[in-house]
Write a structure and sequence with these properties.
alpha+beta; three-stranded antiparallel beta sheet
């Protein structure tokens, strides 16, 4: 592949375009197991029939691991929201509908969300009492097997020129409780300083899924704790403020 056109740069990875393919190229320090798990997640979600880029190959390019997928032409929902602020409500409706469609799918071989959350809580440097309370809350939450994206935000949705939405980046996909995925999306909006959009999103999700806001709120400390282990100092204080609040109205 020709790695001339850069689509995006992220920590420890660069995404390139070559014709009708993309190559996500990882740094040498990136764990091989994480790369292979991401490719496996994407392949398993492909089998649900959702509109996502198709895995074509997992290979090495210049000594670096790479995931080769089909290229999806279009603009992200985040770009469209920025370019057309008058259509924000329309785009947000579409955004929630796409998430609901994901949650309606089943992929029994995906890792379980509760197992991942349990591991992440144990990895935090929170005190033992807080970890115990989070584990207890997590254990008490209902077990579901819905496909959860794990990083569902408008920058991971591509709208093609004919209006078809495609969902990108399945590295955090699990099967579990849809309210946990909604809680993460809400926190992602808040982390991006989009508080008004976060509230609109939460209201819309709860309305469309007939879910009590309080039920999603129960997941917020758990999700915030799991998000805090990503090692981003600029996020830590905000996330820990959610972890340390026991009840949300």
């Amino acid at each position: 592949m020709k790695l001339d056109t850069v689509l995006a740069e992220r920590k420890n990875k660069v995404i390139y375009k070559d014709g009708d393919l993309t190559a996500k190229v990882f740094d040498e320090c990136y764990p091989k197991s994480d790369i292979l798990n991401e490719a496996l997640n994407q392949a398993r979600v492909e089998e649900t029939g959702l509109n996502i880029p198709k895995i074509e190959e997992v290979t090495k390019i210049d000594g670096k691991w790479a995931i080769i997928s089909t290229y999806i032409e279009g603009k992200t929902l985040a770009q469209l929201m920025k370019e057309n602020p008058d259509k924000t409500d329309e785009y947000l409706n579409l955004f929630v509908d796409i998430q609901i469609n994901i949650l309606n799918q089943s992929a029994p071989l995906l890792n379980k969300l509760k197992d991942k959350m349990k591991r992440k809580i144990s990895e935090t440097d929170l005190d033992a009492t807080t970890r115990y309370e989070l584990h207890t809350r997590l254990n008490s939450m209902p077990k579901h097997t819905k496909v959860c994206h794990g990083d569902f935000n408008p920058s991971n949705i591509i709208i093609t020129p004919d209006g078809t939405p495609y969902i990108l980046d399945w590295s955090h996909a699990t099967q579990g409780n849809g309210a946990a995925d909604a809680a993460r999306t809400y926190l992602l909006f808040r982390l991006n300083k989009q508080d008004d959009l976060a509230e609109k999103y939460m209201s819309l999700f709860c309305e469309k899924t007939d879910t009590a806001r309080q039920y999603v709120n129960e997941w917020l400390p758990i999700v915030a704790a799991s998000q805090s282990v990503k090692g981003k100092p600029e996020e830590r204080e905000f996330l820990l403020s959610w972890v340390n609040v026991c009840d949300y109205q």
